[in-house]
Amino acid sequence: MTPGRGVFIGQRKDRLGARLLMMLTCIRLAEDFDTDYRVNWFPQGADAPELDTPHELFATEWMAAHFLEGRAYDELAADAVPVWSFQGDKTPDRLRDHLAAGRSVIVEEGFEVLAFPWEDIESIRPRYRDFIHRIGFAPPIRAVMDQADARLSGKGVSAYHIRRGDILNGLPWKHTTWPAKIEPEELYDAHLDKSRGQTAIMFSDQPELIARFQQRHPKLIQMADIADLSGMTRAQRDFLELYTMSRAERVIAPFISAFSMAAARISGQQRLVFRDVLSEDEIARANERVIQRVAQGPSAFLNPSEAAHVYAKASQYLCAQDRCQEAYDLAQPILDAGADNAFLPLLQALNAFYLGKWKESEHLARTGLENPNLWPEDRAVLCALRGAILGARKKRWAAGLRFAKAFWAKPLRPDVVVLGSRMLYRDQLPFRLFPPVDWALQRRLRQRRFAPFNNLYLVQHKVIARQPCNFDMVLLDWADLSLDQRARRLPESPARLAALEAAVRASEDLSEDDPAVQSLISTLHRHTGEVSLSAAIDVARKVVAACPDAPLYHKRLAELYADAGDAGAARLSMADALACDPDNAFLVFATGQLLIRLGAKRQGEQQILNAAELDEVTAAIQGAAGRIHLRRGNKPQARRFLERAVALCPTYSRFSNQLRRVDG
C-alpha cells in the first residue's frame, strides 16, 4: 500500500453475517486497489447488542490495527464517499484517482459479493472463501475454525439450515406466516435420502429438530459433533456456526435466511434452495408427505404453533390442487389444540371462502380481525376477504366499506389486489365510497398474475379467472390517502409508472383518442418527464372540455396549474371539480390539500376538517383532521378524529401515538 492513499471503511449496523461479509468485501477491495481497509465496528444507530464486545471474536492486536476509534473515523469519513457511487462507472479510473488523492470509500454492502461493472463477479466470488483467514480472530475462535476446516473442507459436505426459533415461539413473529423462511422437514429428508452416503451437517435455532433428524438420519452431524460451544457467548456461537456452515461444499436453506446466505457468501458460493437440488417430482412427493404429517394432528410437530406454520404451506398446495375441503378439515384439529397464531383463522376463512361457506367465512374473518396480535398486512387481507364475502352475499355497501379499509392500509398487498379485482369485475364495489376514478378504464387495466405461494395467501385461480387489476391507477391521483409508504412512492417509481402505461397499451379495446386514455397517459408522462408542463396542461384542458362533468380531470388540471405557479387557475379548476360533486369527501380533502399548497393554510385546513366530517372510511383523512386539531390545542376534537382513524386502521402506530399525545 502506498502511503497517503485512501482506505476502504467497512461498517454495518446489523447482525454478524452482514458485518462479516462487509469485512471480506473490504479485504477484497483493498487487495485489488492496492490500499488498506478499516472497520467502524460501532456505527451510530447499531442495533446488535450481542456484538458490543468484539474482543470475544477478534484478537486484540488485529483490532488495534484495523478498528477505527471515533476521532480517526471522523477524519477518514470527512471526505469519503460510498462505494455504490462508483457502481455506474465503466472503468476503475475514477475510483483509483479518488483513493490516490487520499480520500476514503465507505463500504456498507453486507449481503452480496460486490463487483463493479468492469469486473467479473464469478472470478471474485470464490476468493471470499480464503479472505476470512485474513481476519485476526481470537485464539479460542481460531481453534474451533481449524477443527471445522479439518472436518468439513474438501469433503463434499452438504450443510442444511432449518429455520424455526422465534418464528414459532416469539412475539410478534409467531402471528404471521413466513413461507420464505420456513421449509417443511420433508424437503430436507428428501435431499438427505437422495444424498445418502455423503457427510451432512445441520444447523437450526431449534435443537429438538436436529435431534429428530438424527433419529431418521444417523450419519447426520451437528455443531456439537465438531466442537463444544456451550461455554461460549452468543456472538461466538453464532460466528462459529456460520463459519462451519461456510466450509461445506453446498449450503441448502430456505429462500430467505440471512444466516445461511452469509455463510454461502463467505464460502464463495451461492446458497441453494430446494428447487435447486430437488426435481419437481421429488418436491411434489415431499409435499404429499407434509400433508400426511399435518393429517396426523399437532402431536406430529414440536408444538401447535409449528403445526400452524407448516399447515400454512400445506394448505396452499392443497387449494392449488382444488383440494380445499381437505385443507379445511386439516385446520380444525390445530385450532382445537390451542394454536393461537393470529394468521390461522385467516387461512380457515379462506378455505371456507373457496368452499362457498359464506357465513362461516365471514364469521372467521370477523373473529380474526378482533385478534390484537394480527399483523398489518394480515389485517388488510382479512378486511379485503370480508369485503369479498359480503359482496358475494349481495351486501354491496358493507363490502365496499371493508375493502376501502383494506385498500388504503395496504393497496399493494397481492391478496388485497386479487380480492379487489374480483369485487370490481363482479360490480360489488359502491364507487361512492371511493374517490373519483375512471372505473371503466380501471377495469381494463390488468397486471400479470402474482407469483404463487411466497407473497400471498390466496390461490388466485380460486378467486378470479382474469388477471388482477392494476390499482396503481387509483394511487396515481390519490396516493396521499394510503397509509403505506411504498404505495405513496408511486410517482418516484419508474417501473410502476411504466407498468401502468403498459397496461393501457395492452388493452386492445381502448382508443388513443379516448379522453380517459389521453389524460392517464399524459399524467404518467408528466411524472416521468416525457412531456413538458405546458404540454400536459394543454392535454388536460382538452380532456376537461370533452368531459366537463368528470371531477377527476378538473382535479388533474388544477394540480398542473399549481405546478406552473398559477394559483388563480388552480383554484378555479379545483372549484370546478368540487362543483361536479359538492359533498364528495375526497374532493373536499383534495381541495384542502391544494389550498395549503398554494399558501392558504387556514382555509385549506378548514376544508380538510370538512372532509373528515363527510368521510367514514378513510383513516388518512380522519388522521389529518386529528393532527390539525392537535396542533391547535383542540384536544377533545383531536381525540374524536384520531379515535376514528385508529378504529379504521388499528395497526397504524402513528395514529395511536398521536392519540397518546392528546392524553399526555
From TrEMBL:
SUPFAM superfamilies linked to this entry? TPR-like
Taxonomic lineage of the native organism: Bacteria, Pseudomonadati, Pseudomonadota, Alphaproteobacteria, Rhodobacterales
| Protein origin, superkingdom | Bacteria
Protein name per the record: Uncharacterized protein
